[in-house]
Amino acid sequence: HVQLEESGGGAAPLGGSVTLSCSTSRNIYDQDYIGWFRKSPGKDREGVATIYPSTGGNSGGIYFADSVKGRFNVRRDMAKYIVYLTMDSLKPEDTGMYYCAAGSRSYDYWGQGTQVTVS
Questions:
Q1: Distances (CA, A) of 10 to 65, 83, 113
Q2: Based on the number of CB atoms within 10 Å of its own CB, is 6 exposed (0-12), middle (13-18) or buried (19 or more)?
Q3: 3, 60, 81, 113: which could form a disulfide with 24 (CB 3.0–4.6 Å)?
Q4: C-alpha span between 60 and 94 (Å, rounded)
Q5: What is the four-CA torsion angle of 59, 89, 95, 113, rounded to 10 degrees?
Q6: Which residues, 6 or more positions from 42, have their beta carbon under 8 angstroms from its beta carbon?
Q7: Residue 50 near residue 65 (C-beta atoms within 8 A)
Q8: Are 22 and 34 within 8 A, CB to CB?
Q9: Widest CA span in the chain
Q10: Alpha-carbon distance 81 to 11, whole Å?
Q11: What is the per-residue burial (b if ≥16 Cβ within 10 Å, else e) of 67-95?
């Protein structure tokens, strides 16, 4: 079992930046996928970033959705068990509730989410 907690959301200016944090209760980098998702008003939940397990075929690689590619980035602080999602060049469509999730085969564990509002 792993607990996840997001933080760092809030109001952000159009074209600005915000960094979200996902604190995990244990090391989940070796065998678990980590994902960042968002739920925007009127839209289905969207996966924005996937971090592959370090022991898997993609060896910790990171995949970004086309909608955020080149604007979002991920950084892992393995000593602190924190995964950061840095969001640059914010657009109105980046508004939403952002969640981090983890699991070995499916996303079994989810945080409570943190709201980002771009205006």
A1: 22, 18, 12
A2: buried
A3: 81
A4: 25
A5: 40
A6: none
A7: no
A8: yes
A9: 40
A10: 25
A11: ebeebbebebeeeebebebebeebeeebb
Alpha helices in 15-107, H assignment, sequence order: none
The span from the CA of 47 to the CA of 34, in Å, is: 11
Pick from 32, 24, 5, 30: nearest CA to 98? 5
pLDDT values of the chain reduced to their tens digit, one per residue, 119 residues = 889 999 999 999 999 999 999 999 888 777 889 999 999 989 999 999 999 988 766 777 899 999 999 999 999 888 889 999 999 999 999 999 999 999 988 999 999 999 999 99
pLDDT at 53: 86
Half-sphere exposure of 84 (CA within 13 A, CB side): 13
Structure tokens that stand for 86 in this block: 């840095």
DSSP summary character for residue 102: E
The pLDDT value given to residue 22: 96
- Other C-beta atoms lying within 10 Å of the C-beta of residue 62: 16
pLDDT of residue 59: 78
